Amino acid sequence: MFQELLKMILEYFFQIILLLHVILLPTYIYLTWNFNYWQKRGLRSALPLTILGSFPSILTRSRNLLYEIDVIYRRYKHRCRMVGIYFLRQPQIMVVDLRLAQEILDSNFSAFEMTAACSWMHLRNPNKLDKLALCSALWTTGEIWKCNRAVVSGALAQTRLKHSYDLCQASCRHLKDFLLQKCIGAKPQVVETVDLVKRFAAAALCISIWGVNAGTLTNTKKKQNEFLLMTERATKQMSSLRNYSLLSAVMPFFWELWPFRLISRAVDNYFVQFTNDALECHRELRNPSGLLDVLSLLYERRHTGHMSDEALTGYCMTMLLDGFEDICSALTYTLYYLARDTRVQAKLRNELLQTLRHEVCAEFSFETLSSLCYLDHCIFETLRLSPTVKYCRRICSRANVVQFSKSKSVQVDEGTLVCVPVYSFHHDPLIFCEPNSYIPERYENVAPKELMERRAFLPFGAGPRSCLGKDIAMLIMKSAIVAIITQFSIKTCAESQHSNNSGVDSFLLNLNEKLKLEFKKI
Ligand code: HEM
């Protein structure tokens, strides 16, 4: 059999070689013909590897993309303000200078208004699909984006945060009870922390948005909580978008061939029903949350004819989905860093318990929570070391000229993607000394706000497209840490095995990974 095959190959050797050339040569030419794109424009570029572009790990999958971005950042940061890169065959730009990052994200916003995420949505003819997802600022552009931002900013305004805090306290009590049930006896108990955090984040967001208990920390008898299940399903669907973006880098016409839904119909239907049930519950119980939640606020608007039923669900659902993974990632990492560093944990507990002694009741008031500096610094240090958004990407919306060195500039064409390497800024030793260590005290010398203004520190992005949920996210994370650290000591254990390196696929922390930590009641 083998000999016959060999004989046939030898017989048709030249024909086979010819056939391979006919098939492979055009593919090779298609994938590499524009690898001199930046050279022609006079911009230095990170040398692309044949076919693989500047980031071989996209195909070899040997490490996370962010490490390759970091290598390029370190190589070019002293030589110019930006460098040409190739995402597979697609020419893109990487910013390696803080002031240029400021220009792209903020002062020259009108030319870089679109994020990569909303340009994908824009390309997919969104009017037919994903009506609910279109209520999110994250996925929209132009006038719809402005309207979405205005609605969500109003619902999550600073003045309403106190209400969210009051609602969130119920989830914190449930979190404590949940942990107390696990930590019976004097021995430390191993708790799967990713699961714990997901349950808490879903509960806290649900009560702040819909004003009802999601049951993720209370109804634990059921095998799977449906609210959590649907939330996870939707966030997984949203991250699968990355695979489509890869394909579109090789074949830009791909979007037209294969439009797909960002969030499945089943998830949409679940949240429509959930919102109706929550409204029913508000009516029956004469508004259990006393009009403090986002749904009640938006319902008022619907009542005066300013919002459709569809938009009502869309805003609530996307507020949950836009922040769920980020909160889970940041909170899991903070607990992990605190568990690893007993000195920081003890110092934080000390600050919390000392301040709590001066409080009138057993819980912090909203005002006191806002004044806990060391707690803020611990969370910011997590977001520096493990930012949930590791690079901000903008699409050039109109051709414009960008100065990339003292005397040189380049024309950036419409549609070009520009990457701001957030992770690399956060790990640059010239900006943060000992960049790989967890040192919350570093913000005692330079306040996080000042670093954010310099665009050296971008945990929540910057400019008109910065994070809309930053205040509520900080509030939810701080409430959870207070609830845990004042009642439990946490430690890493043999089962914790958790590398600080993000997995090959993970955009955020790979939340499918498990993180086991030891909890002990104090
Ligand atoms: C720890 C938690 C969070 C972190 C670290 C975080 C981080 C970020 C970052 C870095 C961006 C900017 C992305 C870019 O410039 O490309 C962003 C945008 C956004 N975030 Fe968050 N986020 C968090 C929580 C939330 C929450 C809870 C919500 C929902 C209420 C939310 C809603 C949004 C929206 C809607 C945008 C897009 C804004 C726009 O394009 O106009 N985020 N977030």
UniProtKB/TrEMBL annotation:
Pfam families: p450 (PF00067). PROSITE patterns: CYTOCHROME_P450. It comes from the Eukaryota. InterPro entries: Cyt_P450, Cyt_P450_CS, Cyt_P450_E_grp-I, Cyt_P450_sf, Insect_CytP450_Detox. The chain crosses the membrane at residues 12-31. It is a peripheral membrane protein. GO terms for molecular function: heme binding; iron ion binding; monooxygenase activity; oxidoreductase activity, acting on paired donors, with incorporation or reduction of molecular oxygen. Its cofactor is heme. The keyword Aminoacyl-tRNA synthetase does not apply. Its main location: endoplasmic reticulum. The keyword Hydrolase does not apply. GO terms for cellular component: endoplasmic reticulum membrane. May be involved in the metabolism of insect hormones and in the breakdown of synthetic insecticides. PANTHER family: CYTOCHROME P450 (PTHR24292), CYTOCHROME P450 28A5-RELATED (PTHR24292:SF84). Belongs to the cytochrome P450 family. This is Putative cytochrome P450 309a2. It comes from Ceratitis capitata.
